[in-house]
Design goal:
By secondary structure, this protein is an alpha/beta fold. The chain is built from 11 helices and 11 strands. Strand 3 and strand 4 form a beta hairpin.
Length: 380
């Protein structure tokens, strides 16, 4: 989901990262608070003070989102649901689950924990704001805590909307899961609600743009598109799990892969393999034993003058080992590996011997065939 992110710190065993898109959100928040919100609520505040209040508001929202996502992660840990980490991005934050919850009860508690945490945080900020003197141009801090109380209420309330992938959508899915006993069916209901709500936000954004509120309208529309995409992605992931969970890689891999001897020069590798076979990845062998794999972008980093001197064995990268799977690896695990490593091809090895190649196209073709078979007409 996130291709470029910065790891910030670890807390209670959870990694906290910042996707580069979050900087767009940070700039928008600081700008809107400094130019619009604080000048309206604090009479006479100067531009410099409003700017620093905007910075404080953005940092407070940053901390609030982390608190919200940590509540999800901590409850997930109680139900033994593995969490890869917490990432902040342009539309907020997400606790990245490696697996779906084991049952409807765990889904419900994990989902509802976020809004509850935000309401608690809102109450805490409101209490601090009430303890401070009213905001003035000379002492505007009370307005900052009032804003943080308000934004946490908004964050919690918006997340309670029953549209996947919002927390309310997960609560709705948990209810449907408990009622029907079918996670895939419940996911379909939640994803449909998410797409409907996303469409509503897009329409609302278009109306706002027509009415002259361009920035607000664009923001509403972008959130709508994100919700639709996330809901559809979740539904597709559930379909993949149903269709591919019991299928080993050996059933779909291309057998007898073309291998490259480790002593092959990069120049010959390009001419005799990449140009000849039009593949983007090849297994590299030494004495018929797998030693790694080489991708086209590995070759592109070698200077032209060095290509006749360096060999395929010389340019193997440290991550080539993670491009390797076994014939018994589930296809779904292979697909996850491709996504994690940002590659469309994996080498299949039996011990140290390359026995096949599996590609993203192989997985998608298999999925399409299985879906076509499963949705065929019923016997009359």
């Amino acid at each position: 989901m996130f291709s470029k992110r910065i790891d910030l710190f670890s807390l209670l065993g959870f990694r906290v990262s910042l996707d580069l898109s979050w900087f767009i959100l940070a700039v928008l928040i600081v700008w809107s608070l400094a130019e619009g919100y604080f000048p309206q609520v604090v009479e006479g505040i100067d531009a410099r003070a409003a700017f620093w209040m905007g910075i404080g508001g953005a940092l407070g929202l940053f901390a609030s989102i982390i608190f919200h996502e940590f509540s999800h992660a901590i409850i997930a840990r109680r139900f033994d649901i593995p969490i890869a980490g917490i990432t902040l991005f342009i539309f907020g934050g997400v606790a990245e689950m490696k697996e779906e919850p084991p049952n409807a009860r765990s889904e419900f508690y994990m989902a509802i924990a976020g809004p509850i945490a935000s309401y608690i945080l809102a109450a805490a900020f409101w209490g601090v704001a009430q303890a401070l003197p009213p905001a003035t141009a000379e002492a505007p801090v009370q307005a900052l805590f009032s804003y943080l109380a308000l934004i946490n209420v908004v964050l919690a309330t918006f997340n309670l909307i029953p549209a996947f992938p919002l927390d309310g959508g997960r609560v709705f899915r948990a209810a449907m899961w408990g009622w029907t006993g079918d996670l895939q069916r419940a996911t379909r209901y939640g994803a449909t609600a998410g797409r409907v709500f996303g469409g509503f936000l897009i329409a609302l954004g278009a109306l706002s743009i027509v009415a002259g509120n361009f920035v607000g309208g664009m923001w509403q529309a972008l959130i709508g598109f994100f919700i639709i995409a996330a809901a559809s992605s979740t539904e597709m992931r559930m379909t993949l799990q149903k269709q591919l969970s019991d299928l080993p890689v050996r059933n779909i891999m291309a057998r007898q892969p073309v291998t490259v001897p480790a002593e092959t020069t990069v120049e010959d590798l390009i001419e005799d393999y990449f140009y000849r076979y039009n593949h983007k990845l090849f297994p590299v062998v030494r004495n018929d034993r797998f030693v790694g794999s080489v991708k086209i972008d590995d070759v592109g980093k070698i200077a032209r003058d060095d290509r006749a001197r360096q060999t395929a064995g010389d340019i193997l990268r440290d991550d080539s080992e993670v491009r390797r799977i076994t014939p018994d690896t589930p296809v779904l695990d292979a697909l996850n590996r491709m996504q994690e490593q940002n590659t469309s091809r994996l080498v299949v090895t039996d011990g140290d011997k390359p026995v096949g190649i599996v590609t993203m196209r192989d997985v998608m073709t298999c999925l399409a065939i299985r879906r076509e078979v499963d949705t065929g007409p019923a016997r009359s």
